[in-house]
Design a protein that fits this description.
alpha/beta
Length: about 375
């Protein structure tokens, strides 16, 4: 019998973000991926659990900050410490993925890598595993870069978009499925304004960019060499240093001069062979409180399945409360509000405006109130 190809599948979970728009629950010292937003577990724990249905635990890597490593050690004690990759500084997703690529290539030069954000919600784990399985097979067959796209249901301005071009046949054994489709990518688009988002929705060939990528280690290395040659040289230097006494110094030196750049802008927009695999698996980017509310549905408090008797509402409509403090919260005669209470901060926001919470964080920083960030 031949070698089981699943032995060469790896996952990289990116866990270095802060999540400004989910303040005051998401903080610098406790970023949103380590927070239990919906009272059903932290997002990073659910991400690990989800991908472990396809990738063996010893092949799952988390790339994060030094703080992230500390939080992982405290909250996910069973996770393998030697599979935590630490970035000396935040430099966006292109350097992050380059560093992870060096580590995985050192471990397995024939690896297929699934790259995942740590702070997204997936409601249908079974459908997610199926589409990732198809993406792995496509990445092997096409020798290109695969990204997962989501059929848009509304003119969303908080997401990036992928424009599909030519529809392609799915590889066996996925060719007969009706659940997802494969396209060549024509272009990537940044977060649009409302008018542009409506045009994207009407065109029927734009998909939400999930930020989930699948590729063979050789394919992404090739694209780094072609589109970001300086970073590729840094990647090679890091690769050569791994496991030696020089490793930490080389990584710190590289991060002292590289510029922040997203993988979409640095690689995906310029790559020769990029494919989008589209399907439904209950994906949501929990980027702001309004996104959290869409998932929470009609619940007026985030306290699990049982009503929270600490919340008293009189003559209120569409008032949502996140209250992890143990305080009693009472609302009277209010409508269409988001209220988030913590021990040292209170957010009161009109529904539909929570994307502006990042402005609050910026103001607090400028005013020197870092203890609240």
């Amino acid at each position: 019998m031949g070698e089981d190809r699943s032995n060469h599948v790896y996952a990289v979970i990116m866990a270095g973000g802060f999540g400004k728009k989910l303040w005051p629950v998401s903080r610098r010292k406790m970023p949103k991926q380590f927070v239990d937003l919906l009272d059903d577990g932290t997002m990073i724990a659910k991400t690990i659990q989800r991908i472990s249905g396809l990738v063996p635990e010893e092949h799952i890597f988390i790339i994060t900050s030094e703080l992230g490593r500390t939080l992982l050690a405290c909250t996910l004690r069973s996770f393998r410490e030697d599979n935590v990759i630490v970035e000396p500084a935040s430099r966006n997703t292109a350097p992050c993925i380059a560093l992870a690529t060096a580590h995985i290539k050192k471990r397995d030069p024939d690896a297929v890598t699934v790259v995942l954000p740590s702070d997204h919600l997936v409601l249908d784990d079974q459908a997610f595993i199926k589409i990732v399985e198809a993406g792995i097979e496509i990445a092997r067959e096409k020798k290109g870069l695969v990204t997962l796209g989501i059929q848009p249901h509304r003119p969303e301005t908080a997401y990036g978009y992928i424009q599909a071009h030519e529809e392609l046949l799915l590889p066996e054994p996925f060719a007969a499925t009706q659940h997802f489709k494969l396209f060549r990518v024509k272009s990537f688009a940044e977060k649009p304004d409302l008018v542009t988002a409506e045009v994207f929705l009407d065109s029927k060939d734009f998909y939400w960019n999930s930020g989930i990528f699948i590729w063979h280690i050789d394919a992404i290395s090739r694209e780094f060499e072609r589109s970001m040659p300086d970073l590729y040289k840094d990647l090679l230097n890091i690769y050569e240093s791994l496991g030696t006494t020089r490793e930490q110094k080389v990584i710190e030196d590289v991060y002292s001069w590289i510029h922040p750049l997203s993988i979409d802008y640095g690689i995906m927009e310029k790559a020769d062979k990029v494919f989008v695999l589209t399907g439904e698996f209950g994906w949501t980017d929990l980027g702001c409180w309004d996104e959290v509310l869409k998932v929470a549905g009609s619940r007026s408090t985030f306290s699990g399945e049982h009503p929270d008797n600490r919340l008293v509402q009189i003559d209120c409509q569409n008032v949502f409360v996140k209250n992890p403090t143990g305080k009693v919260v009472c609302t009277i005669g209010l409508q269409d509000l988001i209220i988030v209470e913590t021990q040292d901060a209170l957010l009161i926001c009109k529904k539909g405006k929570s994307h502006r919470v990042r402005e609050v964080v910026d103001i607090l920083r400028r005013e020197g109130l870092d203890e609240y960030l």
